[in-house]
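Quick one: structure tokens for this chain, please?
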Amino acid sequence: MSHDEQNNKINAAHKEAMKEKQKEVRDAIKKAKEKRGVIIFLYGDGKGKSSSGFGTLLRAVGHGQRAAIVQFIKGIWKTGEQIFFSDHPHVSHHIMGTGFTWDSQDREKDIAAAATVWRDAKKELANPSVDLVLLDEITYMFDYDYLPLADCLQTLRNRPPNQNVILTGRSAIPELIDLADTVSEIRDIKHAFRAGVRAQKGVEF
């Protein structure tokens, strides 16, 4: 078989495979009839959960949608997303503000701060004009028993029907996995910090 004949055979096989794939995708699109908001749960010990959540939020805002950011545990320094979204007309931003739990070392203060920011979150989760709510690093709240998981689950179930929600955090909370429509685990393969590279503006915060 000549080189041209071999190429033609490969190209024909590729075209046939892509036709099959196209039919598979189009059939799946036809079957997706339901229109409602979804819950996305991003968890795991790898880097990228919050980044993914903010990327989706940016996409929503780009379409003119309204969004709310609720960050539960972050450092006390200003993050790039806080600076960018702080005065955006379509985004409200709520931050727990006590820094990392291992830095504050004050359980009662952390619980009070968690309760305050959760009240803000509940208002956003009850507001039908808010298209997307990002609950960033919320799993720490359940790991440390700062917030009742049952209240969170009930609030998520009772939110406006077309509202989308993204939850991020390290822990694989089984109840959140069951409730969520889309679940992704982010695994830690390598991280520059363990090689002695300092956290950088624009990458880690």
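The mean pLDDT is 89.
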